[in-house]
Write a structure and sequence with these properties.
Belongs to the UPF0111 family. The protein is mostly helical. The protein has helices at about 10-35, 40-65, 75-100, 110-130, 135-165, 170-205.
Amino acid sequence: MAFSILPRDEQYFVLFQDAAQNMTESARALEDLVRNFTDVEEKADRIRALEARGDEITFQIISRLRRAFVTPFEREDIIAIGRAMDDVVDMIEASAARLASYAVERPTEGACAFAGMIVSASLEIEKIMAQLHRRKVDEIRLPKMAVNRVEAEADGLLRRLVAGLFTGGADPLTVIKWKEIYETLETVTDAQERLANLVEGIILKNA
């Protein structure tokens, strides 16, 4: 069996888990914003702070790479995972910003459904990141498939909601606002699926 006499820096896995937990905290904060639409600016500020924390974790990952000699995965793969997780939180923050700035009276049931899906996928990604250090694709397959299912459900929800906007007799400005909000929320689940697929591919490459 081939092995390296040099220790691998396992701190990356800790940082990945930190980023995943920050993602879930951001998702839960978005769900709270949507389901309890009060103190909107304060809640949006909270999500912005979590997005900034995600940026800091990504910076720590990249900074660690500059000092590392031996890494658990290829450097570009480590960077890709960090940036993919950062992308998810960026889109969560973008969703919150639109809800806060578009002067909506209250979120719709569809927006609440999206928020719940985002939380569900985030929890599955936490499971994936908790197993990443083991480098066994079978151990992340179930949560990865769960993320795929969430994204497929979100795709279908988006189609139904947008169709309803154009057939429900809403005024054009309302249609424009909610179409963009729905599309941004759905983009979060797209980013979550890309992350889950990316991690699976990296594990397979290193199996």
